[in-house]
Each structure stands twice: as C-alpha cells, then as structure tokens.
C-alpha cells in the first residue's frame, strides 16, 4: 500500500504573503476579519477562529505558468502560524466538508486525465493511495467540491 502525506503550502510562500508580497495575480492579499467559522488556513491546515484576521489571496500551487496551472482564492491566518506537521494524518481542513475533488498530476505538473473525481471525505486517503500507486502520478491536489478552491497537496511518503 502506498504511504501518503498531506502537505500545506510552503512556509516560504506564506511568509512572503504575510510580509505583503503580491499574490498570483500581482495583488496585495486582502486583510479581513472572519465573520464566522469555516475559514480554512492553507498553511496550518486548521481553521481561522471567529473574529480573527485572515488574508484572502490568489494562489497558484504550481512551479510555473502553464495551461493546467490553476489559480484560485485561498485563506491564510492574518498573522504567522506554524505549518501543518502531522502530515500522515488527515488535516482539520478536510474534516468539515462531506466531499472533495481529488486530481492527479504528472511529473510535468499537468493533469492526468481521468483522475479527477469528487471523493467522499472518508475515502480521501484511499483514493489518494490509489492514485499515487500509479507511477505516472507525481502528486494529488485536494480541492473543494463546491468551489474548486485548493486545499492541500498529497504526496507519497
């Protein structure tokens, strides 16, 4: 069985954004305060508390621009938070929704056609192991099934 790890966005990316670096669209991240719960931070992979500051920004979880390099909105805590480290355990951000989109990408960062599927929360780990058991798949992205927002990346352990 393929061992998997859940990976948050790199700390170097988060630190740059907290310091005011532009997002994937060249804009400064928007700073706001939460109006409720359910704002998932893509660095600690936990939730931003009610009334806490957060950043909204465009993020592209790919090393370079190319046709399959999807860009979309994400949230980060408004202040630095520790990067998710319990990588072998499903992170808190994947516990609130009933399902997610899992999609496999090749070593060239292109979608492997036929791998994208809405996956029930309780089947995320099994589906990721299945996908990563194929040598042509380098990694898997987890996205919101409702809004297609990037959640995290799953790699082989």
From TrEMBL:
InterPro entries assigned to the protein according to its UniProt record, in alphabetical order: DUF1203
UniProt protein name: DUF1203 domain-containing protein
